[in-house]
Amino acid sequence: MAADPVLPGSAAVIGCGVIGAAWAARLRLHGVPVRAFDPSPEANRILDEVAANAVAAWSDLGLPTDMAPLTICDTIEAAVADVDLIQESVPERMDVKHATLSAVDAAAPHEAVIGSSTSGLLCSDLARPLERPERLVVAHPFNPVYLLPVVEIVGGEHTSEATIERALAYYGGVGMKPIHIKAEIEAHVADRLLEAVWREALWLVNDGIATTSEIDDAIRYGFGLRWAQMGLFETYRIAGGEGGFGHFIRQFGPALAWPWTKLVDVPELTEELIERLESQSDEQSGAYSIRELERIRDRNLAAMMLALEANDWGAGQTLAELRSRFR
Amino acid sequence: MAADPVLPGSAAVIGCGVIGAAWAARLRLHGVPVRAFDPSPEANRILDEVAANAVAAWSDLGLPTDMAPLTICDTIEAAVADVDLIQESVPERMDVKHATLSAVDAAAPHEAVIGSSTSGLLCSDLARPLERPERLVVAHPFNPVYLLPVVEIVGGEHTSEATIERALAYYGGVGMKPIHIKAEIEAHVADRLLEAVWREALWLVNDGIATTSEIDDAIRYGFGLRWAQMGLFETYRIAGGEGGFGHFIRQFGPALAWPWTKLVDVPELTEELIERLESQSDEQSGAYSIRELERIRDRNLAAMMLALEANDWGAGQTLAELRSRFR
Question: pLDDT digits over B65-89, tens only?
Fold first, then answer.
């Protein structure tokens, strides 16, 4: 991140499902007034529930929980007409994205940044119908957006340098860790890694090797803990020892070609596999409602982020920086 | 884990690289005397350095750091002749494993459990030269073994039910979370997921999409934090909302077939790619020595495990159970 953090003066959130509502909560907790648009009758309920979760999580972090105002708007035009940052989080279908972004494009201030929460689509494809595509970036967050710092920033063919700079500044301004991905690919970076794991995990369940619960335990009692503080490469650097990363990779190389994973193929989502996944997941997690699981998750994330803050490391550093702004 | 935890009375560690040495440390911190064998002149140094790291980590956890005695043995026979548990952690080559396990097999008590730390090989293949293959299990840990609870337990064709039960009890006895994988496949479960991520990450670097540092940040500021406390399936269950896991997967299904990941192929480890990985890793982590990175990692893991213990969740529950035994 090169740009200094800048708090946007106001923001619009277009699409208020779980992701859009969590954006609204993060922005409001930072003192940014939010104008929201979503035609769904469920939107208000989701906005309220996610805001309550976000307040609880920030309370766990020891951060102030005052929220800037939320204004529900009847049209996209009314939401975006006078804001610095517009966050689009509508369903992951190109036609829906195009219709939404065109309406945003027609009404947004020329100097506004338009961020799309898309997890898979390309910025250049999203920008196709826009009059002013230079304002559009992909700004892909991870749930819960009010806690997890990461946001992938990806420009398209027409995105201006100024927009990228402003986006990095704004998302940094609301306490995030923007990662500027310099090349456009479907699913950006983090979701490609996730998709790889997801495919392999489905095979493991499909072939009866392990249950959803066993796979989750293999993650969270092992490498998941490691990845909360160091990623793949830094962890393997340690494994390589004093010989350095080149030594490690030269040793590891041949094993790469072993035909271990089943990722050459996509498991067929038969009704049988779906039912197996569903029943295993119920057995694993069915004792809790989704709301309860969200609170458990958020309490754990907050506690681990506090632990990393005390160690001045990783996501804890992002939290420390955020905290310093409230002092 | 069905079996009640049982502390082995004594143990042998065969192969004292980083993994074997960390097994020795975990066993000794639990009060289990360890007999070690490794022909390498480096073995004593590694045993000492890893023991020092383990003591520091247990001190961070607030656990007692007294260690049961370590006896260095000149032969495999002398190491294994009179112990309850033998942990083999020699290099990942079938010929080396076979020679080592045959010597263990010839000298170990009939009722001993022989655990192999292999990350990739099948128990049935490892057992081929053994006279008493019923005693052998794969017991695959994750580094740092003295901190991370997970150990994958996999039997082979000839492994007895009694051995599996005893292995689950012994590894539980030294504060671990044994996961019994019921079917043998190369790389078991956790390393298949890791290999999938590793391949995709190499493509991302190879194709110039992201650097090692950006990929690591995309992990540790985002889904890595989530995975320290809930795995893949429980996280997606939350994403699915009240509709349940079946609803989620039916929605997600079609996206599975999108040609996102490059996992259909293995990147060629050209000298150019190796050098790029090496220089990016140096830039990312070169400010710290491997010893320093190990201590940073261990302090972070200990702090996060304490945070999860306070929340009575996941790896924190394993730690709480372990702590209760020292009271």
Answer: 999 999 999 999 999 999 999 999 9
pTM across the whole model = 0.92
Interface pTM, i.e. ipTM = 0.93
Domain B11-181 superfamily per CATH: NAD(P)-binding Rossmann-like Domain (3.40.50.720)
pLDDT at B314: 92
The amino acid present at B261, given as its one-letter code, is T
Asked if the C-beta of A200 comes within 8 angstroms of chain B's C-beta atoms, the answer is yes
Which residues in chain A are contacts of B218 at CB distance < 8 A?
A: 150, 152, 179, 189-190, 193, 231
pLDDT digits (tens, 9 = 90+) for A162-180: 999 999 999 999 999 999 9
Delimiting residues of CATH 1.10.1040.10 domain(s) in chain A? 190-325
Residues 6+ apart with CB under 8 A from A308: A228, A229, A314, A315, A316, A317, A319, B300, B303, B304
> What's the pLDDT at B256?
56
Residues linked to residue A181 through DSSP beta bridges, in sequence order: A154
Give the three-class secondary structure for A30: coil
What is the band of B286 on the pLDDT scale with cuts at 50, 70, 90? Answer: confident
Asked whether A33 and A72 are in contact (CB, 8 A), the reply is no
CA separation, residue B5 to residues A99, B162, B220, B320 (Å)? 60, 14, 33, 14
Average pLDDT over residues A279-299: 88
Look at the domain A190-325 and name its fold.
Answer: N-(1-d-carboxylethyl)-l-norvaline Dehydrogenase; domain 2 (1.10.1040)
Question: Please, which residues have CB within 8 angstroms of residue B283's CB and are 6 or more apart in sequence?
Answer: B211, B213
With tokens 């980083």, the residue in question is: B18
Q: Where in chain B is the domain with CATH 3.40.50.720?
A: 11-181
Q: Cα separation of B292 and B300, whole Å?
A: 12
Angle at B224 between CA B222 and CA B227, to 5 degrees: 120
- From the CA of B85, how many Å to the nearest CA of chain A? 22
- Region at A37 (left for phi over 0; alpha for psi -120 to 50; beta for the rest): beta
Contacts of A308 in chain B (CB under 8 A): 300, 303-304
Centroid of chain to Cα B163: 20
